[in-house]
Amino acid sequence: MSVALALALALTSAPLQGAEDPVFEEDRLEERVLHQGFDRPMELVVLPDGRVLVIELSGKLWMYHPDRAELSLAFEIEVFTEQENGLIGLTLDPDFEENDWVYLQYSPPDFVGQHVSRFKLVGDVLDAETEEVIFTYEEQREECCHHAGSLAFGPDGCLFIACGDNTHPHGDSGGYAPIDERDGRSPWNAFRTSANTKSYNGKVLRIRPLPGGGYAVPDGNLFPKDGSIGHPEIYVMGCRNPWRIAVDQETGFLYWGDVGPDAGGDGAAGPRGYDEMNQARGPGNFGWPLFIGPNRPYKLRDFETGEIGEAFDPLRPVNPSRYNTGSEVLPPAEPAWISYAAGSSEPHSILHAGGGRTACAGPIYHFDPELDSDTKFPVWFDGAAFIYEWSRNWVMVVHMDEAGDVEEISPFTGRLDFVRPVDMCFGPEGSLYVLEYGTTWGPNENSALVRIDYNAGNRAPKAVASSGLAVGAVPLEVDFTAEGSSDRDGDELRYEWVLLPGEEVVAEGERATHTFTEPGVYTVELRVTDPAGALGVARLPVRVGNTPPVVTLEGVLDGGFFDWGEPVAYGVQVSDAEDGESEGAEGEDLVWWMENVFVEASFVEGPVPGTDGSALAADPPGLALMKMEDCFNCHAVERRIVGPSFLEVAERYRGDEAAFEAAVERVRVGSSGVWGDAPMRPHEASKPEELSAMVRWVFELEPDGKERVIRPGLSGALLPPEAAPSGVFVMRASYTDLGGGPVEPLQGSAELFLRTRRVEAEHFVEPHGLKRKELDTASGGAYFGDIKDGASLQLPRVDLTGIKGARARLGVAGGAGEVELHLAEGRETLLATFDAEGQAARFSLPETEAKVFLQTPNARFVCADSGKDSRVMANRDGGGPWEVFTLQPQEDGSYFIRSYLGHPLYIDHEEGARLMADDADAEPEPFQITEAADGRWTFATADGWALLSKEGDDERLYVSAEVAEGTAFTISYEGQWAMSWVEVERVFQVPTGMTELELRFRPKAGSSGLAGIDWIEFLR
């Protein structure tokens, strides 16, 4: 979310809500940014009077005051902050209005574990003297992490406490179940935590805090109160990282998001990683580390020998570990309520693939018809659970039936963007409060406390203001426009342009012009009102007295191509109305320009920044300040010059706040002997906050394997660092001027891009009619497949000067098709056509159980349609939905076939020998699988009944004893076709100048088309 958008939203008034409307209209959602700039925010609660409490991992508790739109520090506690410890949980007592009790979950420095304590809120401050430690539990602090941390009360007054498994997520487990029994490896062993009935780790606990202190164990937990089987406080076990929980205040159901392991695919040790959104209607065991997702089992492993044993049984799970201090036999495992992987998210495809996974669950909304509120959410959300993703930035709404089963999952809204939502709750007025963590791990300027209202009445206008050049020398004439402002109710609008400070109305109307005759920094405010008086506001800055410098980067072909090992020569020219010209400078003037013009270069894997919807990043404040100092005369990011590289500094002091303060002081007063004999000169003219920003930028640098160059000077040559085979060499020249009067120094810059001559297909932009796929045999591990007729890809900002043609790598799997390379800038010029055809590459059926997809010869996928009694269908449109099946080989050479969810396939002779998928007590049918000549397979039962695809209206799959040949199916592993790659080269007449290219895909007549495209390489 931009600062400008946040400001505009914060200044938009809230018109009164009219009659309650049961229909949800998405455009009635109004987002208000209450505060930005937290340090790793964790959880929030809204007090009955509308004040908001927010905790930060570092130990601070903030209070937001809605009456004055300000933040105040309500409490600070010393916490252990390594390995993701800190202040991690927050909730209010159910009787807060009577007792003012606030509960915190935190990591004390002097106790190896967590405390859950109760404090009294006195006015706007939490009184530290009132702390009552209600509950404690131990954790290991040898290795990182997964502490979870979340608190919630149920409707019966019981407190739920989320406790992570505190097991190292990596190591030799390879992203599968961490059950390493070797000596010294207990931090890598979740047998000792989540699967241990006498460990509080990897659990959600349930206790009843007592008014006089301490707690009681309520009835209805997982184990007896006498502790004979497990800790009596345990309500749910078998969790990995349940770091956000919520309790439905009507049903009492517990909800939590459980962050899953990292394995990217199924393996010999068990299934790939899944995240889970879970629902517990009562106590239970949710499986980790023996099971994941829909109760997919891991296998017992000997990390000493590498031997892999039997899969765990979800009906009778056991914990055989020597670190197990509880019961060996565990409660039966509960499958996840909702689960999804990094790749396919079936059966919940709305939770789309891609990116990391960090599941969060809650709150559950209940519509109150008696609540007098202008902003409460409508009845459409009644009884729905909100689930959200910290890594994927989405929020979903889960509608359920009366039993709590999922009826529908839908996106909450497409109008609002969320930046790593980390917690959310409904306030007493029925508005949704969202805590956004921000872009990166650590403090973020764009972390935010946001309130989302639902306005069912008259809506305020949306004010959008823009201007011509709003910075320059005196006199400065600026044109303003309110074009883009709107009113969702269709009202006629009134426009005023107000000069701040002073409240002078300088113009009215949708367009305005004003001349500024005095130097200064001004704010022009656009006020847009509707006939009811509802107001929308937007602001624009105007800076008078300094002209931005003009920077040009010469000698490099923007949009062209480079080769590894060939240096790229460049030159820079700067023209500034106040500071002068770099061209022709001599003597001290030349030295000035040489020391104050910077050229930055870096290699970026992927598309040209800004062409895939991402923004071009401006300099962070610390880096911008460093360029105005002499820092890069003695230091570089990744290599030593006079002093150490900035990465060396970051690595030595990472996470050490005491070292940070010491470094700021050394930069201020100067130093020597810390990194060698060369002294560092003092920087006493810089402000303390400027020095802190510069040192913070250095301390937060991370090595990423891609060399960054920041070099002063007006000319030179740069050697692109060899990295990925496909990407962009980004060059940026910048100069920050000396400022002018009241106007701060302004930076001018020029940026251009060079591509590798090989461009991965997945680095094109605007894919239409195809999907990104993972595959080991593809260059870069991915390609574009599922290609439909008319599919296309774009390659913007490209200059083909010096190129003679191109080579494309195309995937064939029994089909044939062609790819056309066009100019895409309205000229419809065809440059070249690449075509290929072939058969699917053959492979052997697995000797161990494997996950596969089935596809009929006419490209129709096979799926289990639960809407038709779980009969197995052939999908007619060639796309999803489709089912994932497992093949389990038998000793006699036959296979059992089961759906991904474990439903066996069997033949119902009373239903016309239809093939069925059922989770009832049906017996699976053994199938014989025979390879056909074309690389496909035919299926028949052990009794000789052939499997075929019925070409009727419903196109269900049938099994028949009356035909000799069954349908031949294509099998794919992990959703990827077994394909051959074909390289096709074409020479063509290239255009000159910057252009845009488009790839268009066509199948050949009678063919299912190409299976994929891997890359296109431009030839010199």
Structural description of this entry:
Helices cover 7% and strands 39% of the residues. It is mainly β and 1020 residues long. Strands 10, 11, 12, 13, 14 and 18 form a 6-stranded mixed β-sheet that branches. α4 packs across α8 and α7 (657-669) crosses α8 (688-699). The relative contact order is 0.08.
Q: How many separate helices?
A: 8
Radius of gyration (Å): 32 Å
On the 0 to 100 scale, the average pLDDT is 85
The unreliable regions are 1-21, 613-617
Classify the secondary structure makeup into a structural class.
mainly beta
- Quaternary state reads single chain
Helical content (DSSP H or I, runs of 4+): under 10%
End-to-end Cα distance, whole Å, is: 42 Å
**Can you summarize the main beta sheet?**
6 strands, mixed
Structure summary:
7% of the residues lie in helices and 39% in strands. It is globular, with a radius of gyration of 32 Å.
Keywords:
1020 residues, 39% strand, mainly beta, 6-stranded mixed beta sheet, 8 helices, globular, 6-stranded antiparallel beta sheet
